[in-house]
Backbone:
């Protein structure tokens, strides 16, 4: 029996963008592994000729990576506030974001990050600084300086996680410095 794996829509879209001709997802994964393994298995003689690339793959109708808009971030904050006070569940909030075009994985991550900022807890996945700035502004306006301080703490913990995983954080540290200065004013 062939194993079944589940991947996010975003990852599926990335996989589809790497397809050649009528590739299947399995063929794309196999090619990626063959190109990245030091000693890939030898291909059978029938596969030694390059495949033509006439059309995009039939399965590439998967949604492409979507840009997160300022409106999506604004709605994330409003929905996050409702989750925080207990009048909305995270799945319902996520679905509202998906309904306006946000990727489901991104919707879940942004809602989690917003909640973490409100309570001063670490969040692991990164987001654009502009989106973080919008969340900080909303938190300050809606919840006040105590919550703003919690967001600063959460963002600092977030940067430690990114650094631990080897991501560059220079611009994020400058942004955090801006938020700390704003808190001091």
Residues:
């Amino acid at each position: 029996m062939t194993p079944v794996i589940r991947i996010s829509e975003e990852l599926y879209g990335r996989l589809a963008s790497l397809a050649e001709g009528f590739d299947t997802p399995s063929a794309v994964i196999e090619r990626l592994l063959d190109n990245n393994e030091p000693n890939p298995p030898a291909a059978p003689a029938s596969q030694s000729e390059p495949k033509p690339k006439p059309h995009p793959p039939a399965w590439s109708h998967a949604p492409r990576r979507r840009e997160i808009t300022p409106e999506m971030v604004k709605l994330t904050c409003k929905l996050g506030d409702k989750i925080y006070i207990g009048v909305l569940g995270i799945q319902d909030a996520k679905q509202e974001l998906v309904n306006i075009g946000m990727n489901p994985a991104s919707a879940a991550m942004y809602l989690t990050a917003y909640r973490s900022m409100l309570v001063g807890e670490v969040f692991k996945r990164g987001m654009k600084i502009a989106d973080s700035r919008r969340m900080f502004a909303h938190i300050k306006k809606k919840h006040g300086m105590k919550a703003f301080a919690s967001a600063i703490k959460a963002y600092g913990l977030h940067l430690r996680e990114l650094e631990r995983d080897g991501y560059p954080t220079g611009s994020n540290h400058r942004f955090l410095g801006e938020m700390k200065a704003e808190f001091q004013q």
Q: What stands out?
A: Residues 120 and 153 are 5 Å apart (CA to CA). DSSP finds eight helices and no strands in the chain. The two ends are 63 Å apart (CA to CA).
